Amino acid sequence: MTRTPVAPSPFDDAVLAAADTVQQEIRRDLLDRIGREAAVVAAAPAGAGKSHFVADTIGMLRGKGHRVAVVAPTNEQVHSLVERITDLHPGLPVAFVHAQGRDLSPTIAARPGVSQPSARDARDHRESLVAATVDKLADAHLRDGLGDFDVLVIDEAYQADAARYYTAAAVAPTHLLVGDSGQLDPFSTLDDPTFWRGGSEDPLQTAVGVLLRNHPTTALHRLPITRRLDQRAVPVARSFYPGHHFDAAVVDGARELRLDRPGPGTRGFATVDRALDEAAASGWAHVTLPGGSVLTADPATADLILHLVTRLLERGARSRYEEKKDFHPVRPAAIAIGVSHNDQKDLLRALLDDAGLNGIAVDTANRLQGLTYEVIVAWHPLAGAAVTDAFHLDPGRLCVLLTRHQQACIVVGRDSDRALLDGVPPATPGYLGWDPDPVLDGWDAHESVFDLLEPHRVIA
Amino acid sequence: MSTALEAFFAGRVHEGGRALRRTTLRHTHLTDSPFGIVVWRLGGERFRAAAVAWGPIGGQFQLAVAGEPRNRDLYFAALTPFAADLCAAVRGAAAHRVARQRGSRTDLPVNALQLVVANRSTVGALGLLGRYLAYLSDRGGVAPDPHLLEAGKHLRFYTRHARVPGQALIVPLDRLLADHWATLLSPLEQANLAVLDAQIEPPRGVHAFDASTRAEREAHIGPEPTEDIDRLTTELVQTFNRRRAGSVDRRTVAPLVAPIVEHYRRLVEPVWDLMARTFAREQALPAAPSVTRRFEVDREAFGQHVDWIAGGGRYRTIDTPRQAAMTLRRLEEAQSRYEAERAIEDPACMVPFLLDGDAIRGTVEKVHDNHRTVARVRIVQRALLTLDTDHPVVLPVGKKLWWTATAHDAPWEVVSVSPQGDGSRVVLMLTTAPRAGRLPTAGARITLSTLRTRSDGFPLPLAPTPPWTHQPATTPPAPEPIDAGDAEAPLPAVDGSAVADPEAYR
Amino acid sequence: MASTTSGPLDRPARQKKKAARSTERTQDVVPLRPTKRGSGSARQTVTAALSEIGVPARTRVVADYCEARFGEEIDTRALSALRRDERRAWASSSWRPTYVVPALEGRFFQPIRGLIALSDWPIERRLIGPWSERADHLAATLQLARQLSWLSDRDAAVAERLASIVASMARSIPGAIDGTSVEPSRIANAAQSELGELAPHDGPWRQEAAARARQQLSQEEQLWGTTVMVLGAEEQ
Amino acid sequence: MARQKKSKLTTAQNEVLAVVRGRARTTRPNVRRLAAFANVHTCPTAAVAFAAGVDTNRVFTSSRFEMPFGQSPFAIGRGIAFEQLLRQHGHAELRRVLTDGLGVDFSIAPIENLREGYQPNRIGLTMRASVTKNRMREIITGPPRPIILDGAVLLAEVGGLRAFFEADEMAIGVGGAIIVGENKSWPIVDGRPADEDALGSALDQAATYALLGRYTLDAIGVDPDHVSGEVVIVTPRNTGLTPVLHRQRVDGRIKRIERLLGSVPKVAEIANDIPADLTFDTVADETAPEDARLESFASITERLGKTYDPGSCLTSCGLAWACRQCAFSAGDPAVAGEVVARALPGVVTLGRVAELSHGAPPSPAEAPAAGPIARAGRLYGEAVPVATPSRRRSA
């Protein structure tokens, strides 16, 4: 049990130094390329502090007088980018160009330097730092001719697909692509989106993918650090980044989750309490309901999840951090529930609202990408499934669900889930010029994660 | 797709002994003068249509048989009449235009030539044939008949357009039937038109399953022949080649090819009749309102294609990044809109959405159209709708649903959900100003769902020149002839029983 | 597998196939079962019967139900042979369909002779504690009574055969049988009310025992029971 | 690398298996049979048939359950011709395509043709296997010159028994690595295969050879990773037969094959606990009446158990049509495919599904699945009041 006294420095200086070196190289390579049609790619594991790095780099670029456009796939991601930038560089002018109804939250919007002009105004005033979603920037470029920047910075570049990148890429010659290669690839609603797979024209490859495919010599750097995850979470995270080594920035014991009121409570809560204690002590708990195949929006699983979060708050969870060294209560806003399907999301949302827990976020893996919470409850993608398929095996989905947390992650599934990986994976089709295989890769990732979680298993 | 519904269908089909309708309407436009095509290939020879039959569905077919399709001269001689007819039919259909009411510059063809084939594998076969013909080289200074090249371009266009969800320019009947009927057949088995038909209309007193297994054994649809079929073909072709002794002269060859023609006529006839029968059966079903809209999109594409060809245009064989990006967007658009239109127009197609909780149905308890609320800064007028659903529903507050009657308009937002009788009482708020037509009347039974028929904002065409990031290091090859190999001498056929491990050549 | 909708093919599969054999049905109809009843069809029939009963049941009851409902004679001795085959199949491959398994007693989780269940049921339903056997009997009676009333206006023949079973099952239930008449609704109510009294005891016990089982037992033991030899109990 | 130890069968075990085979025609495992078995490996009946060496594709010969797995003579002729094209004139085409594709000069590389000069039996295969092993050893001991092995033979332990696998070609000494090649006679046009599944299985075959090659090196104490995780597929380009080479990484597929080899049931174990008197004899008896053959098969599957999944069985197992018949006869939801089977936890037959859809009272075990089905029944009834009648043809 990690009740070790706080180390003098909560950080692992070697890891920080290594990360800093790489970041310096990235900035140097970027500055070398300014004015030319060239790019730098920064691949990061989950929670490497990308946004901070992006905000910092943007400040550096603006300091040198370069005009910058910074984009990300979703509005939420851009909102938090604007927040980060203004955190680090108070007063630095940032123009957030957005679609109707996607305004910044009033508090951020009110910060000095922050403006929300129309695309046309942004163009006319030659705003020198524009933030937008990839789609909005593309639209503003085509419709209103917004562009002519020195540098385009793309965050979450592994979620942006080549089709969206196509137009955004035209706003500046020099690009910095920052992203997390372990998360979900761009997806399509088509029944068969594989028509172009393997071709350099494939609109569904990632922005990074199309860039490296067409320009294999592009500088590619790997950040060797995760700041969000601590050492207890790293082994699991590593199964999603083959060939990419990284370590936790914080030393063991720098973080702690404490449950003031002791469990186990009433008989009904026995399992829930055991799960919470395990999660608090080790950072992980894998709670399994009785085996068997159930509907995707299984009520029993939803109930268990509800109990877990209510009980977590009831027991007065408090956490301690490298930054905030003394304990502070875990608020609902610091808890999120990750699922794979919208009907699971709807069911849980309804249950939580009834229980007056509107503060707790529930969302699908796609929407949780890039976000951070203290505690995550993850509805295992294979929970109660009768068979495996490409969607539920996708390593990216599992990666997102299991790498959002700073303190603890509670995975909820069924006894029978592990057995789905007995036997042999299905035969898969082949695509020339396209090596990865989501099913086979996912099969391995899932298996190693199951093994890593086994010591934290709590049978419900 | 709702698994519960699929299970229900399986149970009822097993019980009733025949397929059940998945729809109450027909969701594919079927024209009055469709152009049918049947293809039989030489086994393993993806570019060799050993026989092509074509003609008006329900009418007589013409049959083109080369005898030795691996001989360029014989092959082209046989295919030319088919090519000529296809070109004539396409140009004929494109001749009459009407000025477009709205949108793009091009006038809209009044009609478009609808191709009908037995299955999706025939679509694939035509695609390869088209790829082969569209870019023929004039080897040895002999230019192939221009009809062949043009027909190749048409086939390329049709098979690429086949990917558009809900399109009706080229109709693979297996797909059409599988969309309209629920059977006991697994997806794999649904690829056989005869098997599908047997489950839909089994002979009197015969269970669908028994009828379809027999059909599976006895009916051959093509385009890929079975071992038994090609054992016959092999003998015939060998005799043919021996007799013609290298001659490709029409007069010499014509009498010799007759037995092979007969062989394929026997193969084509049952398929042709089957196509006519299945086509007629689906045509009898009332068409869904939106098929005309979707076919208008098809006609536009068809018109643009014909103009492009007329202008001597050629198609790339590999999309540019721009084409791929725009196509992807177009296909996704078409797909979601097709799904929505089906379910909104056809109660049977809404069932899976109700079962999966993506739609709710109930009786309007009351409508309050003068509710005031704050939208961002100012007070606005909104409508509140109270709906009593037949079945308990799980909906988070704030979830957006579209009333099927206004699926092209603004959504309703869930305000509250509470138990009520056997179901739930759901209060929803209209997310825009309550105008007439936007509000249902009290007492009405209505359905709301996540489906909508309008997408936000129409996308702009992408810049013609790709950004440097999307320019391949090596520029992709320009469209090239792929017929180089067809100069090679025909390969000797080898019977499976004559080799140790025939599987090795699969 | 009965139903009433019209059409020549709506009879239950087995009857349909008998028809196919006896009467001059068209050749297209393939016999729907091997003509001889081997241990083979016993497996399917017993599985079908158990899933319709829905709780662990005595082999005798299952056999009677099979006969009444499907017109299949099941030799109760064949059932133990079946169970051996089942376990071999389970051990021999990663095949994981529904098996016929023994119900387990709740202390050492040993298989209980002559009381069978289905492997895809949650373990708490396959465990037998102080109240469980009675509770299961009531649940079974309740379900069969409902089944009876539903069938009676759909398949008189089957209903008739079923009635006697339901009657004999209901005998032990106070207030279920009024004289000789078999009233499904009356029986159901009686079973329901007694069940209502047992549930508060049986339910929690099963939950607790199931939790123990899932902590202590391997997947295999959770299905087939432990093989610890205790006086009086023997592996079957 | 874990490598199963091979074990000889006892006479008794061999006799048991002989009984199981009866009159059924036999077959040996090879890369394609292994791949086919992978698709049905959870089926106990398929496992027993595979272990006993029963040729499932021919068990039902000359009955209505015989599946048309045969190929057109033209297709086979094309395949053979393509192989010959690669070999003729001292393997000129193979040399060219490897040189172009791998960037290593094979124009003068020695070629060890293992297809000729060896007896077509286990002795010959054993000799070819040892030559293959020796040539592979040279990757570290020998001079750094490229060699091509045509028809390399690799040893595998399948189900605990020795099996021989024949690789199309093996290019040794490509930058210190060994690269496995697989030839297919279907065309690649505009850089795309006509059929992604065909490409997938070709890559799986190459992956199998790569894995067995690694086992071979491992067995002789050489670093297995000398066998590259990248394989090559050689196919015709466009019309005609002009060969072209494609490189592809198959690490994931290699892992899959490793799992597969590990999950093939041990023949010895199967022989030990197989029910006595269980045999495919009657099933394979072409003189017996069809229904008798089916019935005998049904009793086998009943005793061993079977998993019928149309999606995988119909493409991979010669018993599938018979299995489908049994499944239908039993009203097994599996006939309608995996989606349906998955939707019905606790409900055993389609007949029962129909009843539940008509409102039959579900048992506690059936309740979870019954609710949605009954509701589907109601909703469909509302939407389609009377099932659309359509003209019936008379039989």
Separate helix tally of chain A? 16
Distance between the termini of chain C: 31 Å
Q: What's the mean pLDDT score of chain A?
A: 92
Total number of strands of chain C: 4
* Beta content of chain A: 15-25%
Share of β-strand residues of chain C: 5-15%
Low-confidence spans of chain C: pLDDT under 50, at least 5 residues?
1-40, 230-236
Description:
Chain A is built from 16 helices and 19 strands. Chain A is of the alpha/beta class and 460 residues long. In chain A, the strands form 4 sheets. In chain A, strands 4-3-5-2-6-7-1-8 form an 8-stranded parallel sheet, with helices on both faces. In chain A, strands 16-15-17-18-12-19 form a 6-stranded parallel sheet. In chain A, strands 11-13-14 form a 3-stranded antiparallel sheet. In chain A, strand 9, helix 9 and strand 10 form a beta-alpha-beta unit. In chain A, helix 7 crosses helix 8, helix 10 crosses helix 11 and helix 11 packs across helix 12. Chain A is globular and about 65 Å long. Chain B is of the alpha+beta class. In chain B, 40% of the residues lie in helices and 17% in strands. Chain B contains 12 helices and 15 strands. In chain B, strand 12 and strand 13 form a beta hairpin. Chain C has one domain. Chain C has a 4-stranded mixed sheet with strand order 1-3-2-4. The radius of gyration of chain C is 19 Å and the shape is flat. The N terminus and C terminus of chain C are likely disordered. Chain D has 395 residues and is α+β, with helices and mostly antiparallel strands. A 6-stranded mixed sheet of chain D has the order 1-2-5-6-9-10, sandwiched between helices. In chain D, strands 3-4 form a two-stranded antiparallel sheet. Chain D has a two-stranded antiparallel sheet with strand order 7-8. At the B-D interface, helix 1, strand 1, helix 3, helix 7 and helix 8 of B face helix 4, helix 10, helix 11, helix 12 and helix 13 of D.
